[in-house]
Amino acid sequence: MSMDPTQQTYDLVAAPQAMPVLLEALSRAERVAIDIEADSYHHFHHKVCLIQVAMGDRCFIVDPLAELDLSEMLSLLSDKLLIFHDAGYDLRMLRADFGFRPNNEIFDTMLAARLIGLEKFSLSALLEQILGIGLSKHNQRANWAKRPIDAKLLVYAAEDIRYLERLTDYLTDRLHRLGRTEWHREYCQWTIAQSQVVKIPENSEKVWRIRGVSGLSPRQLAFVRAVWQWRQEQSDRADSAPFRILHNDRLVELALWAERQKQILPDKLPRLPRHCKGNRRRELVEALQQAQRLNSRQWPQPLLKNAGQRPAPEILEKAEHLHTQCRCIAKSLDLPTSLIASRKSLLAAVNTHADTEEKLLRIGWMRWQVRLVLPALRDVLG
């Protein structure tokens, strides 16, 4: 079964007079399936462009860009059992744009699918495997900020949540049969907590070091940094995703070309995207010329990987031994080892000698992970 992109199967809330019907439906619901659409693929300043909610056979699509008062809706939602598929991104965006935090529990169908051992856990894969429903993937990179929004995109957005309650019923039963209901509940609580953590700005000396710059000389890195900073300024000003200004591979090529030049002239630049003209081109030339004027003391230096941070050989050996034991635990549960514990978390546990439940919880483990791995960890630590 697949959806008909011409059939309207939702209520659009894009004007104040449409809000009361949604609020009434929310007030009666015990659980609500929810999803968002954002514009991160197209814009530099990311924002929530649609909020989809479904209760039973009723689906609403809310347009946050229509200058609606969403306060009562969000207040009602915060007290409901919310069903997401891959909740982390949606919760972070809802917090960033609206200060939203769930007061009740959430049910993440992606986490549930992973915890019952499914290898394919995208929404489309789950709908196909469990419900026999085909979901279109063609609109995943649509520009959700564009108005008026295409009716076919609204149908697509509605389909993302229409079946989440049915998935939840199936997955809840499977989790219960496997004795993993509490694992999932704790994982969802951890997801909520992580979504509320304000992201720390990236290190200014690392953020511009994109793929393809390792092994470059300090002078070459100076030009990469200059072009990257120019691109960030242009992206910010145009509210356009950085790759739409200049792809990373072309950024590195341009920087390496500039580093080889004795003099950088506006009319001698290599071929650039068509939009790179006028002030944008002039500012690029100025950025390259400024990089050319830097002296060797001003060039960025290559980063040394894990300089001064590499654990002692015996720590690495113990962590590897623990990982081997975790593979056995995971195999017995028909789960991927990385879900039981990542290599990074295992190394942290060994390196800090976290041999109690309290110590492991303190360094970010979940309780269900602790109970699975702690005996093996104590055996490794001796």
Sequence-ordered SSE layout with sheet pairings:
Blueprint (H helix, E strand, L loop, with lengths): L10 E3 L5 H10 L2 E8 L9 E8 L2 E5 L8 H8 L2 E4 L2 H12 L7 E3 H7 L7 H9 L19 H12 L1 H15 L2 H15 L22 H21 L3 H4 L2 H13 L18 H15 L19 H21 L3 H4 L2 H9 L5 H6 L4 H15 L1
Parallel strand pairs: 1-4, 2-5, 5-6
Antiparallel strand pairs: 2-3, 3-4
Describe this structure in words.
The structure is a single chain. This protein is 51% helix and 8% strand. It has 17 helices and six strands. Helix 1 packs parallel to helix 2 and helix 9 runs antiparallel to helix 12. The mean pLDDT is 93.
Please describe the structure with a list of short key phrases separated by commas or semicolons:
Nucleotidyltransferase, domain 5, DNA polymerase, domain 1, alpha/beta, 3 domains, flat, 382 residues, 6 strands
